[in-house]
Amino acid sequence: MSENNAIDACDGLDVSAARDLLRQQGYGMCCRFGHVHATTDTQELHVCILADLATMSSSRFLAGLDEAMKQSLQLALSLEHRG
User: Fold this and answer.
1) By three-state DSSP, how is residue 40 classified?
2) What is the pLDDT of residues 23-74, one digit of tens each?
3) Core-most of 1, 10, 21, 63, by most CB within 10 Å?
4) Model-level pTM?
5) Domains in the chain, please, with CATH?
6) Do 27 and 36 touch, CB atoms closer than 8 A?
7) What crossing angle do the helices spanning 15-24 and 58-82 adopt, rounded to 10°?
């Protein structure tokens, strides 16, 4: 089993592990109203529900971040076309 598969096979993430994953991607983390958000100085992206971390693999968590980034980009492009 590769190292990535071993990580994905774990039972889930805790807040510290999620924070480390986001930090590796260049984001900070905040938890508000039971949700995990990836943050920068100018952006805040919803990644997942806090309670879901316990059953979430690192790859699924990062997929949530990727999806949040795509949605943010789509929204920005949509707003740009309106203007």
Assistant:
1) coil
2) 999 999 999 999 999 999 999 999 999 999 999 999 999 999 999 999 999 9
3) 21
4) 0.80
5) 3-82 (3.30.160)
6) no
7) 50
